[in-house]
Design a protein that fits this description.
about 400 residues; about 10% strand; 3 domains; single chain; three-stranded antiparallel β-sheet; mainly alpha
Length: about 400
């Protein structure tokens, strides 16, 4: 831990202009950060600002000055002990220890680990492994930020302020090259830990009070009908590419996310009231139910792999590769098909929401139910994408010859 610098100043202050009988305050400054408290004594005689004591010779003046010397000595003793024991040092920590409020400071990374351990014990019971990994990543970034900023292994919760938070945001963007929304996600994870600290009274005030999350709306890419047809009709001589293409198409016509198609089994297929087969499965991310009628293209893909070993070996309906491998092969597939967009497993879900459903008049409430969204506001993001598409199409129409001649 880097050595800190400390200074102690005593000064009288009063709500009135006159300093007569003003309360004497102690100001502790450590590494340019201050913390103050009342000494519970008053300056009844002339005050010497350079010496930080009263100049009178009365018994009361001598008694007050002795008390101030005792305060100064105890503060230095606390500071020396913290340095000697290699514990966090700040003006606020020293003040709290002097006042007997909190000798054992709760630490940020320590509390963050406790939180992550609780989530890990609840995987599959309200939390997903993806959520755990995001919190672990946020904690790791904070750990690296502390080493980058202060060469410390941890920081007391009471030391965290708005400056620390805004500095962390800048660090994520400048040193870790995080995109704006990615950085915001990590800070929101951090914010939850501080809310836990506030609820448990480990801190007196919320350092996030003046910080507001500012999400930037991203343009969601999707395949057009033409691109979807090109992809579906392309013949592949390499089995792994054909297999990944088929799973991608299945997601385009069901809206399932990678994690959900990966766990899809015969138990998730039911016979609907209309006599057709449906997929009814709980989303791994939100645990909400997705109810999806199986469209002909999706049905053809299920039939194509009806005898695949994955059915017997893992009780899965489709042979899904890892997400990393799937995304790597999808880039190769896009090149082969002449598609300039970046194909990912999640782009298939966007395609279902836009090209397959909303653009063909399926009501937003129905699409939201099929996608398993917890809020229709999430589904409305796809409608915004479609609005921009409609605007672009109409601009092209305006450039063509008018429908009616004047």
């Amino acid at each position: 831990m880097m050595a800190s610098s400390i200074s102690i100043l005593f000064y009288p202050t009063s709500a009135k202009k006159s300093l007569k009988a003003a309360t004497i305050y102690a100001r502790i400054t450590v590494d340019s950060k201050r913390s103050e408290f009342s000494t519970q004594h008053k300056a009844t005689e002339k005050w010497d600002p350079k010496l930080g004591k009263m100049t009178g010779t009365s018994a009361e003046a001598r008694m007050v000055n002795r008390h101030l010397d005792d305060v100064r000595t105890k503060i230095y003793e606390i500071y020396d002990r913290l340095i000697r024991e290699d514990k966090p040092v700040s003006a606020q920590i020293i003040r709290d220890i002097y006042q007997g409020k909190d000798d054992e400071q709760r630490m940020l990374l320590e509390l963050f680990k406790e939180h992550n351990d609780r989530i890990e014990s609840l995987i599959g019971k309200g939390y997903s492994n993806g959520t755990l990994q995001r919190y672990k990543a946020a904690r790791t970034h904070l750990e690296n930020y502390l080493l980058f900023l202060k060469k410390k292994n941890d920081i007391a919760l009471r030391e965290i302020d708005y400056q620390f938070i805004s500095g962390f945001e800048h660090y994520l963007k400048s040193q870790k090259n995080c995109a704006h929304n990615t950085a915001t996600k990590y800070i929101v994870n951090f914010k939850k830990i501080m809310r836990i600290a506030l609820a448990n009274q480990f801190i007196d005030k919320d350092p996030f009070f003046h910080w507001k999350s500012n999400w930037k709306t991203k343009e969601r890419e999707f395949l057009t009908s033409t691109e979807l047809n090109t992809l579906a009709q392309k013949e592949f001589s390499i089995v792994r590419l054909e297999q990944v293409r088929d799973i991608f198409l299945f997601c385009c016509f069901t809206g399932l996310a990678y994690a959900d198609v990966n766990k899809l089994s015969s138990d998730d297929i039911i016979l609907g009231l209309n006599g057709e087969r449906w997929i009814k499965t709980k989303r791994q991310k939100t645990n909400t139910l997705s109810s999806i009628p199986i469209l002909p293209t999706a049905e053809q893909i299920l039939n194509k792999y009806s005898d695949h070993p994955c059915r017997l070996k893992d009780n899965k309906l489709l042979p899904v590769l890892t997400n990393q491998k799937s995304n790597a092969y999808l880039k190769e597939i896009a090149d082969v098909c002449g598609i300039s967009k970046t194909l990912t497993t999640h782009l298939a879900r966007h395609t279902f929401a836009t090209t397959v459903t909303l653009s063909r008049g399926v009501p937003m409430e129905t699409v939201s139910k099929m996608l398993g969204h917890t809020s229709i506001k999430t589904t409305q993001l796809y409608a915004k994408v479609l609005d921009s598409k409609i605007g672009a199409d109409m601009d092209l129409l305006k450039k063509q010859a008018p429908i009616l001649k004047e």
